[in-house]
Specification:
The protein is α/β, with parallel strands linked by helices and 156 residues long. The chain has a single domain, classed as Endonuclease, Chain A. Helix 2 packs across helix 4. It comes from Novosphingobium marinum.
Length: 156
Amino acid sequence: MPPDVVDAATRSRMMAAIKGRDTKPEMTVRRGLHRRGFRFRLHDRALAGRPDLIFPRYRAVIFVHGCFWHGHDCPFFRWPKSRPEFWRGKIGANIERDRAAGTALRAADWRVLTIWECTFRGKTPEQHEAALDDAAAWLSGSSGEAEIRGDNNGAG
């Protein structure tokens, strides 16, 4: 296993600077859905998992997940080579917490959409708009749980 290219203090500072809210993918979703006429609340602590966007009128929530932090099975996710047991535990706990939050929200009669970061990475503005159209169609529809990912751009 190759050593890290930066010292531990620098790596710690770099990791601490990673945002958990108002990320680029989240802002893309927020702006796109607002432009389409949807109004929402943000990060309600009263709801399981603290969803990124809450649409009370539609009884729906949207999570915008980063592929790395939530262990998505896409080309943008790779297990780190350093401290593998730490990362497997951390990312595994995130995945389990996501599952539990989804289950609790569905039990409380909320519809849940997960939009993955890979939906927007390396894509054209037209592909972004298509994904946002899929999210808007899901919000206006009646299906329960869905996800939009970079490789299928379809809520369903």
